[in-house]
Write a structure and sequence with these properties.
about 400 residues, binds manganese (II) ion, three-stranded antiparallel beta sheet, Creatine Amidinohydrolase, Chain A, domain 1, 21 strands, alpha+beta, globular, Creatine Amidinohydrolase, 2 domains, four-stranded mixed beta sheet
Length: about 400
């Protein structure tokens, strides 16, 4: 079902134990949440829970004593009706998947925590409060529930989110192999769509082409795909994908496959009909900037330097096409309002854990864009790039960035 063995998750726990100096950590997997009336949202496991346990079913939790390298899985209380309708895994399957040492029932959680608190005065866990403050949607309630229990039992509870992000930011060769596979599945679908672009009459037909190809490979969309024709591309998170082909315009396609738990995240903008001279001009400038930005990437480069040089490159191109009067022009951010890069991994927006330097093994996107709301033009090009010991490797380099 998945290429990952219990060994992988066991090693991930040991890496965490080193990072938190043999501390005790408790991680809540996600619980299922309502979609509407009596149906649930498609379930997606919390990335940290999956990384440390491999459990993909709702309601499970992980306790891990880094001093003893001992892991407990906490099985959710599931009634017989839920089991009949939704299935689930039994204790033996959970142990085989995770490499954990034992399974306890949810009703024994607090008693187990009290025993652990005799040797560990403090616990590490994922604090949902900082995340909740910056999100426009409700968080999965599981992390807050567990955090509250831990705060009652332990003298101190420390947020482990940054440590987890730093571990996950640097990929192993096995993780890179899976990301490569996700990128390859995505670029192949892009190539097909590009060759047949004139045959699609609606945005959703292009979305369906990707979805078909991903599911045929037992993969899925890593995130809601963006297929935005003409002026729709000026809405950065446009996901309706229901409009007809514009009379004259390009189509921005931001799509990634998820393969064995890891994501690709790729964007191309294609002429859907014959592009206007203006779109050709802007796209050429963006494409030049995109490749110059990728060429910047090298190991141990300060993130702040990278950002400064990205701004220089983008401003120079914007001046060259007359969008800015000079590189000091304040309008810069109205034409390019989003970040140029983010980490990529189990989550499509994988935190780099506040790193100051780009380090070998980190995978980042490079995705400059130009958005001209007044002219109804939105353009973006996005590749997935791994920082190597000697420079960088663009994992999606084989997919042409050209407009046609
Ligand atoms: Mn992206």
């Amino acid at each position: 079902m998945t290429r990952w063995s219990a060994d992988y998750h066991t090693q991930n726990r040991r890496k965490l134990a080193q990072k938190i100096d043999g501390g005790f950590v408790a991680i809540a997997g996600h619980v299922a949440v309502q979609r509407s009336n009596d149906t649930a949202q498609p379930f997606k496991q919390d990335a940290n829970m999956w990384y440390l346990s491999g459990v993909t079913e709702p309601g499970w939790q992980l306790l891990y004593d880094g001093t003893r390298d001992y892991a407990w899985l906490v099985r959710p209380d599931t009634d017989e009706v839920t089991r009949i309708f939704d299935g689930g895994i039994d204790d033996a399957q959970a142990l085989a998947r995770s490499g954990a040492d034992t399974v306890i029932a949810q009703r024994d959680l607090e008693q187990t925590l009290r025993q652990i608190a005799r040797t560990h005065s403090a616990a590490y866990a994922l604090d949902p409060k900082p995340l909740a403050a910056s999100m426009s949607f409700a968080l999965n309630p599981a992390a807050a529930r567990l955090y509250a229990v831990l705060e009652r039992i332990f003298a101190g509870v420390t947020d482990v989110r940054r440590d987890m992000a730093q571990l996950r930011a640097v990929k192993t060769e096995d993780e890179l192999a899976v990301i490569r596979a996700a990128v390859q599945l995505t670029t192949r679908a892009f190539e097909h769509v590009r060759e047949n672009i004139a045959s699609y009459r609606h945005e959703y037909e292009i979305e369906a082409e990707f979805g078909y190809r991903f599911r045929r490979a037992n993969a899925q969309f890593a995130y809601d795909p963006i297929v935005a024709g003409g002026k729709n591309a000026c809405t950065l998170h446009y996901i309706a994908n229901d409009a007809a082909r514009p009379k004259r315009g390009a189509v921005l396609i931001d799509v990634g496959a998820e393969v064995d738990g890891y994501c690709a995240d790729i964007t191309r903008t294609y002429g859907w009909t014959r592009p206007t001279k203006r779109v050709e001009q802007l796209h050429a400038a963006l494409r030049t900037a995109h490749h110059e930005i990728i060429d910047l990437i090298e190991p141990h480069m300060p993130v702040a330097d990278y950002q400064r040089q990205v701004d220089d490159i983008m401003k120079r191109q914007m001046v060259s096409v007359g969008l800015l009067t000079s590189t000091a022009d304040e309008a810069y951010r109205t034409y390019f309002p989003h970040a140029v890069s983010h980490g990529l991994g189990i989550d499509v927006h994988d935190s780099l854990g506040g790193t100051r330097l780009l380090e070998p093994g980190m995978v980042i996107t490079v995705e400059p864009g130009l958005y001209l709301a007044d002219e109804g033009i939105g353009l973006r090009i996005e590749d997935d790039v791994v920082v190597t010991a000697t420079g960088h490797e663009n994992l999606s380099a084989s997919l042409s960035t050209s407009l046609m």
